[in-house]
Amino acid sequence: MSDLTSKDDKQLMLFAGRSHPGLANEIAQLLGRTPVPARMVTYANSEIYVRFEASVRGCDAFVVQAHAAPVNDWLMEQLIMVDALKRASAKRITVVCPFYPYARQDKKHAGREPISARLVADLFAAAGATRIMSVDLHAAQIQGFFSGPVDHLYALPILADYVEQKYDLGDIVIVSPDAGRVRTADMWSDRLGCPLAIIHKRRDPEVANTVAVHEVVGEVEGKTCLLVDDMIDTAGTICLAADALKLKGASRVLAAATHPVLSGPAAERLQRSVFEEVIVTNTLPIAKESQIDKLTVLSIAPMLAEAIEAVFCESSVAALMSEKHKRAKRLQDRAAEALTIAPPLDL
pTM to 2 decimals? Predict the structure, then answer.
């Protein structure tokens, strides 16, 4: 019998769920890849079927899915995709979820409550995922819920570069909408060299998604206030915060957030609010009815493409995040490159 030799060449393969094809296509274009063709069906009883139409044996698989509403459907689809890859002998499976599902249920606030963010991590592990990649986790401790590597990316360089290019930083005050986002606001303050202010609020424990804003801590009179958060869901918190800043004499109010969840009345609230501009990324698809005039959407695809490339090449993802100025230039170059590539691929 002749000697058997192993094939050491790694193969990067990209797999796209159905929740956000635009983002998946943009990542694929930047990587110079085509998403692996797949047959995905939702049956009449809502069960999901997935079959990949190419061999995935021994590949380095990256499974991209955005967890917008209906979250449970898209989460289940991604789990089924991971399971299919595991059973087809993919060598390594990285779950790419720009917006981590159930991230706000990261701890128990009262007895007999679940820690659903941990449950999601356990489900990914049980399905066969070996790595998770996400952007701006609601709580950094979620990284510890998964036993394998977790690449926690930050949209701050993309959002901050946009603000720096468009607005006069000498007039800006970074504002945290509540005590829980002070660390995020502090990172913004360090990045842009702007002063920091905090809004103190209290939630109604009996009513979900309602807040009562109390006072502003910091000097905001006559300033351009930039409210920063990881997500905008129903927009109740951030709109009340903007009103409080205006009452304290702010000349202009802006908002920057990574994840545009935009549930229920969010778009209407933002449109009627005192915000001059609301800056978000495309970690989640934005419904047509939510694409209001005040909304500016920046692409997160260049960052994800770079991180996927770094993981595949076994280079440092942390180094990507720390090289602020060089990295910002690379992201801009990649975004410009994406505009010159052929139109998005059909999944």
Answer: 0.90
